[in-house]
From TrEMBL:
The protein's name: Exocyst complex component 3
Signal peptide boundaries: none
Domain of life where this protein originates: Eukaryota
GO cellular component: exocyst; Golgi apparatus; growth cone; membrane; midbody; perinuclear region of cytoplasm
Native source species: Esox lucius (Northern pike)
UniProt subcellular location: Cell projection, Growth cone; Cytoplasm, Perinuclear region; Golgi apparatus; Midbody
PANTHER family xref list: EXOCYST COMPLEX COMPONENT 3 (PTHR21292:SF13), EXOCYST COMPLEX COMPONENT SEC6-RELATED (PTHR21292)
Family annotation (Gene3D superfamilies): 1.10.357.50, Exocyst complex component Sec6, C-terminal domain (1.10.357.70)
Similarity comment: family membership: Belongs to the SEC6 family.
Example of a GO MF term: SNARE binding
UniProt-listed InterPro entries: EXOC3/Sec6, EXOC3/Sec6_C
GO terms for biological process, alphabetical: exocyst localization; exocytosis; protein transport
The protein's assembly and partners: The exocyst complex is composed of EXOC1, EXOC2, EXOC3, EXOC4, EXOC5, EXOC6, EXOC7 and EXOC8. Interacts with EXOC3L1. Interacts with BIRC6/bruce. Interacts with MYRIP. Interacts with SLC6A9.
Amino acid sequence: LMLLNACLVVMEETNREAVATAVQRVAGMLQRSDQLDKVEQYRRREARKKASVEARLKAAIQSQLDGVRTGLSQLHNALGDVKDIQNSLADVSKDWRQSINTIENLKDVKDAVVQHSQLASAVENLKNIFSVPEIVADTQVLIEQAELLEAHRKLMDLECSRDDLMYEQYRMDSKNTHDMNLIRNYFGQVQGLSDDLAKQLWMVLQRAMGTVRRDPTMLVSVVRIIEREEKIDRRMLDRKKQTGFIPPGRPKSWKEKMFEVLEGTVTTRIEGSQSVTREADKMWMVRLLEITRKYVLDDLIVVKNLMVQCFPPHYNTLDRFLKLYHNAVSMRVQELAAEDLEANEIVSLLTWVLNTYKSVEMMGHPELLTEYDINLMGPLLPQEVVEALLSKYVQTFTSNITGWLRKALETDKKDWFKETEPEADQDGYYQTTLPAIVFQMFEQNLQVAAQIDETFKEKVLKLCLKQMNSFLIRYREEVIAYKEDHLKDRQLPQCYVQYMIAIINNCHTFKESISSLKRKYLKSMEQTQNDAAIEKTLNDVAKDGCQFLLDEVFLDLEQHLNELLTRKWLTGSHAVDTICVTVEDYFNDFAKIKKPFNTMTSEAHRRVVVEYIKAVMQKRISFKNADERREGAERMIKEAEQFKFLFRKLTAGEETDRLCDAIAAIAEVFKLTDPSLLYLEVSTLVSKYPDIREEHIVALLAVRGDASRDMRQMIIETLNQNKPSSAGFIQPIFKDITVPTVTMTSMSSSMAATANKLLK
């Protein structure tokens, strides 16, 4: 009942919330009187929504019910399985209780079996037990005569007899130490024989390089003996896990000892290769490394061709010896690196360690290369040791390259003031020799670094790029100073424009050269920490150069731009003709700028149009009558077409109309003869160029000369109320065009007077 009451309460609250929500929705849909006609439409739409919701609700409830039904069925089946398992466990428990008595009845049989086993072992070893002294003597003679296989066979018989007797004694009475010691003492000489045999084995292994050439069967016998002992060790260890008994002297671990002996032999051979010292021979390091190279290569070829056949395949003999020699050489070169080496000795050591060691002259020899992957071997010297040795060269290189770059820049600066044009490449683009000189220096040092180590080569390249970044910052400063010197006397240097073009092209050459170096000397083209800074600086230099050239153009155009929209211009002026001819002449030279940086045409186009519109906004002229407005507008339209033609020609037919259309659109405002339609014409202008501001419109109306204060006020207020948004406008034109302050002051006074008049 409580649950039912709670459900009823929840349903009532839900109904109230639903009614409130419905009221809000109906109120939202019927806010205006014209929406009452759509009541039936709204009702049908809500009915459809309600039917859709009810259908989804029914489907969801049905899905939940199906899931509950499936779950109950699975629980029922699980209950039946649990009962079956419970019954099976009860049967197993019953059978186990019945078998306990049977196990207890077999205890006597078990004791009899143990006793029989002990007696059988004693009978089996009875012959060996009585002949132990004789077998010991024979085995000792065989060891001295180097009959190792036969000696080991007899040793195994003795050890087998001893171990079996001790094991049976351990099984019968593990705490009876007296009998156990009696057996151990009787076979006491067996351990001595084992030690003597081991000494012979180690002696053969120490001379393995000579033995395998002279008598490989001896080495094979040693390996066979060690393999037998390894099998016995494994068998004894397995029995220890089961019974807890281990014979004396086990495990022998002769295989492990064999590898230790071989490792010591290799180390001794490498350490004994030094025959001269620094005092006796200045080239001692070169001689030492060459002797080591020869010894290692000869020994490994012997291992591959002869010794591999003497060891089982699972020993991976060649790989193991490669590691032994690699470790021994590594220890030796680390000892050499720890000495106070001179500069040439460091070069010799690093070249040998990082280059010669893995070359075809040593570890990369064709006879060895087919058997293993040399790249899987670790470095001979730890990286920190290599870095310490290389740091001296890095310091020297850094100091040298800074001086080289400074000298190269000074030489290039002298060329900028020459009276002859710079050289051009095969495509006719101006350039100087600076990029070639800089990257020739980089290339030479990188080739040396590449001979030492890949990592060091990349480090040197990154250092070059770091120095390149600092150099380019100085380069930009010198370019700016070059421009400032030119502005002091624009007649000097005579080839300023041509060398500025060459400087811009150098930026492209620098980029290409950097990419070429990275492709050649870096494993991957991933970005380095200096790439972004270099890219930005080069772009800044090129951008500055292009801007300086445009400034040069517009300094020549300044006088002619000042003639625009003046009385002289209205009565007949060739200012635009001169502007077009001057721009085209300059851009014939600018054609020798490489394309990645040659964006000057669009910038010049925009700047010409902006300067033209600025001339309009400066109110240099105020038309006195309709004829002047018509004549001025037609002249503006004609000059806009001249600009279109010029920049289409310079951009090889690309779209250039939009910027020039702004001049024509302003001309249409001036050309209009009916002042009553002036608002529509201005509105059209504002819709095309949403970035136009109020002061621009006031200036245009002032130049037109026939707009009354009331008309200006009405046009501005109406446009402010319906001004289109400039968001997303691709190419603003009026944004950076300012109107002189005098115009703004007079406009404010005019607007104040109009406001007072309206208030009255």
